[in-house]
Amino acid sequence: MRPFRSIAIDGPSGAGKSTLAKALAARLGFLYVDTGAIYRTVGLYVARQGGDCGDPQQVLPRLPELQLSLTYGADGLQHMLLAGEDVTQAIRENQVSRYASQVSAYPAVRAFLLEMQRNLARTHDVIMDGRDIGTVVLPQADLKIFLTASVEERARRRCRELQPRGAQVDLATIQAEIAQRDYADSHRSAAPLRKAADAVVVDTSQMDREESLAALITLAKERLGL
What EC identifiers does the entry list (predicted)? Predict the structure, then answer.
């Protein structure tokens, strides 16, 4: 029996990691694991309990009581469950992005979730995306990709995503928020956002979704012999 194969996709917020990783997994028949959604769920839980995600003393004691699980529907898409409630949509609120960035900075939170993520790679062909997949979670991944795009382009994409929902959006504000999160993610002490030494950089600033996906498919076929 051949070993399971893994693709690690890292990069900053808003670079299209989740969208492209999901599409690539569907194309290759791999399991898609959105690690960012896991941290968002932790942040959502702490906030719902009235805790401050920016204070580790209000986050870490809540980990043992956290009832978090992943399920996959018939469509192969990942759903996040919190005490049995499907919070897949709730964790996509803009505010939850900040919660996720805060809780993911704590080593104890990362250690708490690490085994869950690695076990999925032991038992499935996976595509996993996040901030430290190729450097910490799956350092032996068969293919490591660092997916990025300019701050300006990521802000424009975020505005296009929010507008159909009726949200009030301001391009300058969103651009500033993305730049701040980039700084926070790359300067935190625990598993900072950085490119693995053997990762392939894919900059999608000048690519649309189909062009970006085509580039990833080509990489996967070349490196994994698919």
Answer: 2.7.4.25
* Residue 6 marked ligand-binding: no
13 annotated ligand-binding residue: yes
pLDDT digits (tens, 9 = 90+) for 100-140: 989 988 999 999 999 888 988 998 899 999 888 999 999 99
Q: Are 219 and 147 in contact (CB under 8 A)?
A: no
Q: Is 134 annotated as contributing to ligand binding?
A: no
95: enclosing H helix or E strand: helix 94-103
192 is in an annotated binding site: no
The domains of the chain, with CATH numbers, are 6-224 (3.40.50.300)
* Joined tokens for residue 226: 């698919």
How does 175-195 read in b/e, with b if 16+ C-beta sit within 10 Å? bebbeebbebbeebeebebbb
What's the pTM? 0.79
Q: Rounded to whole angstroms, what are the CA distances from 155 to 57, 81, 146, 171? A: 32, 29, 19, 6
Q: Quick one: angle between helices 94-103 and 171-187, nearest 10?
A: 10
Judge whether 25 is annotated as a binding position. no
